[in-house]
Amino acid sequence: LSDPDGETAATLIFFAPTPEQAERFARALIAENIPASVPWWSGQHVYNHFDQIIERRLLSTQKCSWECPRYQGSATLRKGQFPRTDSILKRAVHLDIHPLFTDRDVDDIIAGIRKVARVVL
């Protein structure tokens, strides 16, 4: 988004009341030709989907954080370890904001979000 003060936007994330509504919202936006996703199901940057980390299958020879000499505590990571985070990610609807979007593109996305919200929410 163009901003005279230089602010940029790369992502728009908003939250539906329930995970089911978030999924329906994202699917309806896609049907309106607006790329969207629910981060929980995208697998992107969600700890719960990083089996290689949860199972400690890392390429690093230092095996941080589990056996890292710089950390003397006990580190664990398991699926479901962060229920509040899980709840938020399951209700989040994610849209990328492309730097080449025109004002018209943004207006179309806003119209699509409003249209879908009237139906889904």
Automatic annotation (TrEMBL):
Pfam families: DegT_DnrJ_EryC1. InterPro entries: DegT/StrS_aminotransferase, PyrdxlP-dep_Trfase, PyrdxlP-dep_Trfase_small. SUPFAM superfamilies: PLP-dependent transferases. This is DegT/DnrJ/EryC1/StrS family aminotransferase. It comes from Candidatus Segetimicrobium genomatis.
